Amino acid sequence: MSNTSSNNDLKRNLSNRHIQLIAISGAIGTGLFMGSGKTISLAGPSIILVYMIIGFMLFFVMRAMGEILLSNLEYKSFSDFSNDLLGPWAGFFTGWTYWFCWVITGIADVVAIASYAQHWFPDLPAWIPMLLTVVLLSVLNLLTVKMFGETEFWMSMIKIAAIVALIIIGLVLIFTSFHSDLTNSTAGFSNLWEYGGFFPNGTMGFFAGFQIAIFAFVGIELVGTTAAETVNPNKNLPNAINSVPARIIFFYVFALIIIMSVTPWTLISPDKSPFVELFTMIGLPAAASIINFVVLTSAASSANSGVYSTSRMLFGLAKKQDAPEPFGKLSKRSVPANGLLFSCSCLFGGVVLIYTVPNVIEAFTIVTTISAILFMFIWSMILISYIAYRHKKANLHQQSQFKMPGGILMCYVSLAFFIFVLVLLTFQDDTRHALIATPIWFIILGISYFIRSRKRTE
Q1: H or E element at residue 180
Q2: Residues 117, 231: Cα–Cα separation, whole Å
Q3: Statement: residue 24 has pLDDT above 70
Q4: Where are the chain's structural domains?
Q5: Residue 267 — very low, low, confident or very high, per pLDDT cuts 50/70/90?
Q6: Which secondary-structure segment (H or E) carries 185?
Q7: pTM for the complete prediction?
Q8: Cβ count within 10 A of residue 401
Q9: Of 264, 201, 196, 217, which Cα lies nearest the Cα of 43?
Q10: Within 10 Å of residue 458's Cβ, how many Cβ atoms?
Q11: What is the pLDDT at residue 303?
């Protein structure tokens, strides 16, 4: 499919630099900036292993997705290939669940943006920054897909610059044995094991870290929804997918090693961003405002990704008659405008949430846990689709230039890992409530699919 494809096809306008930064942005979610304080308080330094294990498992999900997408460039996303390989029900469940995943993640991001804005404007009603964010993202995404790519590129650059700055400043503090009067502690790598060892809270503390850390990886599969709008997908998609492990190590592992080396993990607040804490501790006058801007940008970037991916998923569903027909129409600028506006309107659910659950952190935890559970369903469907692909399209696998390492065996290992994480979610009250509530979504989907199937056979 070329740039001059028919008027009702998505255009390939995302370049390699866009795809690389969209993939990075997917790997660096709001969870890293906001959730890492809580994960550190639960697992201590062993949280480094938690992030590495999750990153390792998700690399195989990405490779499975990459091999299937490149086996047939008619696949627009994982909803398309799950529909083809597992049946219409799988495409319906995957597409609508992915849409819902990003809507609730977008709501969490918009809620977070409102709280960040109140750092500068304490008396500003929460609904004003929420409304402005949704309107701005709608306009940017309605223009062209290239505008989405550019916006995401620069938002990602801000996140990357913040983490690189943290790592460089942290290394300087460590090698100069910086002593903080605020915490009465000295920076050094020995802080990683001197406060109760590497596993200070034992096995259960280590396992508890998985519950929140998994949300930090939400969006890592986002590059899969760009498949239909990527210039030269055979080259650009593998490059983006293969660089995931390096990103995980650099952005997550190195950043957390630096944070816990500069400040002992016991002094890191679970309710605050450790990124803000580190810059504040070294006495940078504008630290709070600078980092507040970075985390606000990170949340806006995540919401921007959500608006993009939900509109594309609705477009694909409408093409298969799994969503209302208007969602399958493109604007003059080759953007699925109807789906985009519908998804943006759903983000106003964040306003309702703030009135229902006034505690921002509590609301954020509930929403992000439901989001993480549903994303694990999406990742599992990608793996199950890969197993079906290997059985049904063995010839395409043989011809593939981008074979998944470990193949079917690693699919089963990764699926077992997701089951293990779901079991861990039953250990804490807040995550258990979200786990109990999640099946309601699948019941609604099941009823909708049954009604749709009945209508088609009449």
Answers
A1: strand 179-180
A2: 37
A3: no
A4: 16-457
A5: confident
A6: strand 185-186
A7: 0.83
A8: 8
A9: 201
A10: 5
A11: 80
Measured distance between the N- and C-terminal CA atoms of the chain, rounded to whole angstroms: 36
Rounded to an integer, what distance in angstroms lies between the CA atom of residue 367 and that of residue 363?
Answer: 6
220: exposed, middle or buried (Cβ count in 10 Å: 0-12, 13-18, 19+): buried
Residue with tokens 């997701």: 418
Whole-number Å distance between alpha carbons of 115 and 122: 9
Give the Cα separation of 75 and 93 in Å (integer). 17
DSSP class of residue 248 equals I
CA neighbor of 22 nearest in space, from 213, 214, 313, 219: 219
Tokens of 156: 């990602």
Report the sign of the C-alpha dihedral through residues 86, 449, 369, 421, in that order. Answer: negative
Three-state DSSP state, 384: helix
Torsion, Cα of 152, 158, 163, 165 (10° steps): 160
| CA atoms within 13 A of residue 375's CA, in its CB half-sphere | 25
- Token pair for residue 417? 């890992």
Reply yes or no on whether the pLDDT at 119 is more than 80.
no
15, 149 contact by CB (below 8 A) = yes
Alpha-carbon span 215 to 414, nearest angstrom: 16
Token pair listed for 54:
């999750």
- Rounded CA separation 109/273 (Å): 15
Q: Which residues contact 244 (CB under 8 A, 6 or more apart)?
A: 23, 27, 55, 58, 59, 62, 220
CATH number for the domain running over 16-457: 1.20.1740.10
Distance CA 191, CA 267 (A): 11
Q: Which helix (H) or strand (E) holds 179?
A: strand 179-180
Dist CA 308 CA 226 (whole Å): 9
User: Per the structure block, which two tokens stand in for 323?
Assistant: 């969503």
Q: Which two three-digit tokens encode residue 115?
A: 């709280």
Q: Which structure tokens are listed for 213?
A: 């850390």
Tokens 């195989």 sit at which residue?
A: 60
- C-alpha to C-alpha distance for 9 and 28, rounded to whole angstroms: 30
- Structural tokens at position 335: 């953007």
Q: How far apart are CA 199 and CA 209, in angstroms?
A: 11
